[in-house]
Amino acid sequence: MVRRVVWRVACGMWRVALGYGEWLDVNRNACVISWKRFDDWAALIFKYARANNLIGNVTTLYDLANGDDSTAAEFHGLDHRLIHRALIVLESQKRVTLLKGANIAETGVKFLDVQ
User: Fold this and answer.
1) Cα separation of the two ends of the chain
2) Domain enclosing residue 9, as ranges
3) CATH number of the domain bearing residue 66
4) Predicted confidence band at 89 (pLDDT cuts at 50, 70, 90)?
5) Which alpha helices (H) appear in 23-102, and where do they start and end?
6) Residue among 40, 35, 11, 5 nearest 23 (CA)
């Protein structure tokens, strides 16, 4: 049993270190893992924003993940925690401003015009 726990933690640490996951708590009891790196999701989301004239506009994380306009997007239906983490990457790149909402789905996202 101890081996399984150690293996899970080691796998989680490896995936998080490579940018494919994020710990959900400080004790590392659970993490969210994706098949793409957060940088890759961030690039897809920003490309979508450019293609759909969202630059300069505000939308919500929920609308990005589940809105009617994003049904053809690769990130449509993706776990909100994964999209939020990708948006944090975009925020660190100064490509979006995140506006705190009542919950993660209501997080506001303003896409910024950067070249």
Assistant:
1) 52
2) 2-33
3) 1.10.10.10
4) very high
5) 38-51, 61-66, 80-92
6) 11
